[in-house]
Amino acid sequence: AAALRDASVAPAEVDAVATGLGGLPTTEAAERAALAAAFGPTTCLAAPQGRYGETPGAGGALALASAGAWA
After folding, report:
1. Quick one: pLDDT at residue 69?
2. Fewer CB atoms < 10 Å away: N or C end of the chain?
3. What string of DSSP letters covers 23-45?
4. What is the C-alpha to C-alpha distance for residues 6 and 68, in angstroms, rounded to an integer?
């Protein structure tokens, strides 16, 4: 919320969020709930790490491609 406020961006203006969601059932529900509370329930949550695992050096490109595919 603070980052959105600092950037003068409303949550409704965000179409997609590149996340670090890794597909772990123990943490993913809480992370998804927190992101939905911050951005709204219809914002795309791109989570390539859950499919491809940790990808040092390629993570940013995968997150951007994932988010761009849904936005």
Report:
1. 64
2. N
3. --HHHHHHHHHHHHHHH-TTSEE
4. 23
Q: Do residues 14 and 42 touch, judged by C-beta distance below 8 A? A: no
Rounded CA separation 29/21 (Å): 10
Q: Which residue in the block uniquely carries the two structure tokens 């179409």?
A: 15
Does residue 40 contact residue 17 with C-beta atoms inside 8 Å? no
pLDDT tens digits in sequence order for the chain, 71 residues long: 788 899 999 998 988 787 777 777 788 888 888 888 888 887 777 776 767 777 777 767 777 777 666 55
Distance CA 38, CA 69 (A): 21
